[in-house]
Amino acid sequence: MSFIIKNIASVKERIRAAAENSGRNPNEIKLLLATKTVSAEKILIALQAGECLIGENKVQELKEKFEILKTIPHQTHFIGHLQTNKIKEVIKYADCIQSVDRLELAEKLQKRLEFENRTLDVFIQVNTSYEESKFAISPENALTFAQHIKQLDRLNIKGLMTIGLFSAETEKVRKCFQLLRNIQVQMLEKDLPVHELSMGMSNDLETAIEEGATIIRVGTAIFGKRPYPDSYYSNDNK
Ligand SMILES: *Cc1c(COP(=O)(O)O)cnc(C)c1O
Ligand 1, residues 201, 226, 236: which to mutate, most atoms within 8 A of Cβ? Predict the structure, then answer.
């Protein structure tokens, strides 16, 4: 059996255990495969085994793998930092953009979608760890930002996304996820349809599930260590 299939089974077992611990139904938690730097052939193994949701960080990779992956029905979310000059490309290949983090990006997406006479699902990416290097809207500005986006009729707001603090201290990481959940509650009260919470990765998925994640994004625990340092993905200057 492929190591990928085995790893997916272990991740699913972790999802089940974390859901059970927090009195949740594991079926309400979706597994998104974070596939940056992973070859299309490896991703295919997961799709053939029944996985149906992947996430890419770079428009170039999305495009390169598209032809091979499109043979099997699945959904692709864009989860990386998105430059406005890539909008036209990214919406050809992605079903959802989870990393909407600034008004300029939202407005330009709206314009392009108007031009193509279509709509797109989006998540708002919130900087719950207060790390300066992260592209994301600050928790303080998230509500106003979401209200702006609601005015953009081509963008369907689906939920909130965050990257938790990179730390071995679980309680610090948990604070990030609790913050996202609190922001969600506030937004739901204002009729902003942010029903999904995309949070939790290989190292912190249990904590995220305990705090209400509906989508976890897992790369390393399934495909192994990436060949590039993660800092490579923190900006799009390449
Ligand atoms: C790479 C990545 C992940 C997955 O991280 P792992 O630690 O490899 O599970 C999740 N979300 C985003 C935005 C990523 O860039």
Answer: 201
Q: Is position 235 within any domain?
A: no
Phi and psi of 194, rounded to 5°?
Answer: -90, 65
Domain that holds residue 18: 2-223
- pTM (2 decimals)? 0.96
CATH code for the domain in which residue 213 is found: 3.20.20.10
154 within some domain? yes
pLDDT digits 0-9 by tens, 90-121: 999 999 999 999 999 999 999 999 999 999 99
Distance set, CA 174 to CA 15, 46, 207 (Å): 16, 29, 6
Phi/psi of residue 143, nearest 5 degrees: -65, -50
| Structure-block tokens of residue 121 | 């699902």
The set of residues, in sequence order, having a beta carbon less than 8 Å from that of 149 and lying 6+ positions away, is: 100, 106, 122, 124, 155, 157
> CA 111 to CA 128: how far, in whole Å?
29
- Helix 139-151 × helix 103-116 angle, to 10°: 20
Ligand 1: atom nearest CA of 205 is 9
**Among 30, 96, 123, 217, residue to substitute to test ligand 1 (most atoms within 8 Å of Cβ):** 217
Amino acid identity for residue 169 in this structure: E
Domain count, the chain: 1
